[in-house]
Amino acid sequence: MENQTILYMLVLSGLSDLPSLQLPLFLVFLLVYLMTLTGNLLIVLLICTDSHLQTPMYFFLGTLACLDMGYCSVTIPRMLFDFHTQTMLISIQACITQIFFFVFFAVSEVFLLAVMSYDRYVAICRPLHYTQIMHWKACVLLVLGVLIFSMLYPLVHILLLLKLTFCTINPLQSFFCDLPQLLLVSCSDTFINVLLILILVIFLGGGVFALTFCPYVIILNTIMKMSKAMRSKAFSTCSSHLTVVFIFYGTSLFSYFHPNAKDHSAADKVASVIYTVLTPIGNPLIYSLRNKEIKISFKRAVCRLIQI
Q1: Which of 13, 24, 119, 123 has its CA 20 to 30 A from that of 261?
Q2: What is the pTM of this model?
Q3: Which family does it belong to (predicted)?
Q4: Would you say residue 247 lies in a domain?
Q5: The domain that contains 141 carries what CATH number?
């Protein structure tokens, strides 16, 4: 430590170091960000104003839309700022703050997707007991539980991060402050940090993964016993959720757990863009394009506006 200078500012590598690409990338991601906010806000407004959509399934979908708006707002505005200024500098405090909110929204989405799987299981496999099990109090408590736990989870990592010092001049190989990348530029012993990540990911992540996918084994078995008309409706409600789950889990697992994850190549950055930027804009598109009730509700809202 004697010959090492403690750093208070970090450098982000960004998506590209070519000056000619900064303005086009800025405009593209600004458009994506505005579309993400608009699409998710529209879903929230439809669910809040249309009585036909005020059911547990759409309550969870509205919550997911709110999380998506927060999730993309953690990374995209900072990315746009770096495209505009081309400085790529971020303070340690700002970096740790970004990590807290990024992990909070990411974990919230993971747990909410598991809750939505359970909701689909009850709706399809136990339809006669659906209103008794998924009543409003239960739905609100589930969401509150998800948010409270998701706030405590990153807090554990943040408390450990605050004890580290950073003295490596190597830039973070990402366009946002990512927890594994930040640990790589620390000159402190990060064994406890890494061990905690592994333990929580294996036990907690594995449990949530099972809670998300296991209900679909029972759901698919139940759907195959239904009539053709009921089967088509059940598939339409489940396919949207499964599409979102596969995109989120697939890109996240590729980015963090493939053999060369530490290298953070161009493919890793593409995967990061998908699960941090494109997934939040993809969710409202997937749910609106594949959901008849959302489309009908949108048409009703447009008609009301025209009549005004």
Answers
A1: 24
A2: 0.90
A3: Belongs to the G-protein coupled receptor 1 family.
A4: yes
A5: 1.20.1070.10
